[in-house]
């Protein structure tokens, strides 16, 4: 066990035993117990036991699709869900199209009556789906509309090793990547607990959850590109099992690319925002793209869309004459005053972004606005929802000497660290 990991387990024990919010850079005065190499501490009554960690189920491609391309570089079996009966097998599968039939699934020329199928590969990492190589196994679900959902099941730690590279550049400092790994692991375990039982998968493979692209991929030029790397595997291993808790429970540790100077108050944007997502100052992301940004666009379409939205929600103001927006510096969403010929209404900058301007037009919901028809100038900060850990901020803090615990405690005040098992 390396010194870094040993010190981590000691810190985690201190947290569990003392219930303290800690900074790893500070010597703890708690009772520390060093564990034998290779062992994992168990959680005390102060922390919720997470139980045996099942595999994470990732919905590939975000939605069900009519056709998937499948390749398996080794022995495999096709299993039907009624008792996992074997309905097909082979030593390898060259690139084959997978789609729905009227009443089941088709893999190449093989037609099966089953609407659900599990593909079990003998060697993890031999599975290719749409030019991406995955660890673990694959499940297929024929949807009512004839499209097929592809769900990759794998262990949480290799999933984290892929997400670290999917979400954060490899050249960011180790402490920033370790902090992200802990947030990503907590995120997926939270989703598995909170939502998994209700549907066939736990998380999406894109920014709707976290970016997961498997082990490697083939790009449009036919080049094989590593997604998981030795470095991302090391980052996952160095933080193996470590998660964030709030009052002994997993919470959803939202994180974003760039906050622009202050992270967002989570409760403004997410119903499941836990108290650590209160919003904190961030001085680390000044070098980031979109730390500050400006958008100039036509005012008329915004006024028309917003007017329709207000009408739909029972707050009609008639033809809009002006829109004013504030941009508080403390992480709250700004207030937008919409004045029309028949009155005025107040909405948030989040509503203005989503209902008036369009979420793709503005990098974040934190902005001020100058209404100068026929144009409107929008000056904003940050990229994404800006809630929770700021990835560029974590980079800045790591460069300034913070370790991953200090970074996490900054962005999630009141949270503690523990080991999931
Ligand atoms: Zn930031």
Summarize the topology:
Layout: H1 3-18, E1 56-59, E2 67-72, E3 76-80, E4 85-90, E5 93-100, E6 105-107, E7 110-112, E8 116-121, E9 127-129, E10 132-134, E11 137-142, E12 148-154, H2 156-167, H3 174-194, E13 203-204, E14 216-218, E15 224-226, H4 230-238, E16 242-246, E17 249-250, E18 255-256, E19 292-298, H5 299-312, E20 320-325, E21 335-340, E22 343-348, H6 349-357, E23 367-372, E24 375-381, E25 389-390, H7 391-399, H8 404-411, E26 416-419
Bound molecules: zinc ion (ZN).
The site of zinc ion has 8 residues, from helix 7.
How would you describe the overall organization of this protein?
Strand 21 (335-340) and strand 22 (343-348) form a beta hairpin. The protein is built from 8 helices and 26 strands. The two termini are 18 Å apart. By secondary structure, it is of the alpha+beta class. The protein has helices spanning 3-18, 156-167, 174-194, 230-238, 299-312, 349-357, 391-399, 404-411, and strands spanning 56-59, 67-72, 76-80, 85-90, 93-100, 105-107, 110-112, 116-121, 127-129, 132-134, 137-142, 148-154, 203-204, 216-218, 224-226, 242-246, 249-250, 255-256, 292-298, 320-325, 335-340, 343-348, 367-372, 375-381, 389-390, 416-419. Strands 7-6-5-2-9-10-14-15 form an 8-stranded antiparallel β-sheet, with no helix packed on it. The protein has a 7-stranded mixed β-sheet with strand order 4-3-8-11-12-1-13. Strands 17-16-26 form a 3-stranded antiparallel β-sheet. It folds into 3 domains: 56-154, no CATH class; 157-287 and 386-419, no CATH class; 292-381, no CATH class. Bound molecules: zinc ion. Zinc ion binds at residues 258-259, 282, 284-285, 390, 392-393.
């Amino acid at each position: 066990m390396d010194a870094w990991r040993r010190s981590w387990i000691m810190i985690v024990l201190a947290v569990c035993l003392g219930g303290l919010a800690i900074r790893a850079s500070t010597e703890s005065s708690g009772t520390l117990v060093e564990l034998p190499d290779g062992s994992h501490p168990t959680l005390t009554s102060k922390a919720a036991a997470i139980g045996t960690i099942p595999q994470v189920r990732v919905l590939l491609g975000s939605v069900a699709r009519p056709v998937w391309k499948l390749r398996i570089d080794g022995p495999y079996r096709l299993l039907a869900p009624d008792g996992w009966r074997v309905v097909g097998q082979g030593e390898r599968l060259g690139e084959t199209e997978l789609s729905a039939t009227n009443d089941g699934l088709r893999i190449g020329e093989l037609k099966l009556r089953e609407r659900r199928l599990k593909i079990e590969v003998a060697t993890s990492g031999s599975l290719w789906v749409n030019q991406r190589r995955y660890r673990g196994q694959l499940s297929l679900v024929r949807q009512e509309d004839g499209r097929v959902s592809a769900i990759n099941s794998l262990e949480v730690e290799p999933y984290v090793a892929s997400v670290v590279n999917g979400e954060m550049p490899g050249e960011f400092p180790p402490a920033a990547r370790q902090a992200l790994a802990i947030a990503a692991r907590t995120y997926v375990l939270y989703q598995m607990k909170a939502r998994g039982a209700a549907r066939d998968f736990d998380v999406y493979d894109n920014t709707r959850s976290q970016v997961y692209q498997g082990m490697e991929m083939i790009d449009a030029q036919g080049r094989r590109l590593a997604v998981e790397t030795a470095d991302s595997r090391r980052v996952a291993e160095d933080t193996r099992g470590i998660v964030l808790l709030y009052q002994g429970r997993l919470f959803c540790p939202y994180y974003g690319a760039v906050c622009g100077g202050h992270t967002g108050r989570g409760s403004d944007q997410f119903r499941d925002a836990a108290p650590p997502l209160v919003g904190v100052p961030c001085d680390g992301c000044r070098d980031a793209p979109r730390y500050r940004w400006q958008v100039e666009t036509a005012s008329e379409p915004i006024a028309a869309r917003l007017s329709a939205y207000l009408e739909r929600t029972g707050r009609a103001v008639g033809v809009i004459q002006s829109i004013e927006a504030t941009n508080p510096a403390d992480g709250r969403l700004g207030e937008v005053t919409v004045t029309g010929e028949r009155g005025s209404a107040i909405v948030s900058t989040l509503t203005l972004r989503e209902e008036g301007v369009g979420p793709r037009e503005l990098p974040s919901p934190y902005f001020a606005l100058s209404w100068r028809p026929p144009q409107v100038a929008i000056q904003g900060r940050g990229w994404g929802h800006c809630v929770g850990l700021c990835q560029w901020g974590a980079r800045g803090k790591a460069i300034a000497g913070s370790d991953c615990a200090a970074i996490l405690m900054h962005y999630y005040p009141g949270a503690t660290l523990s080991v999931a098992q």
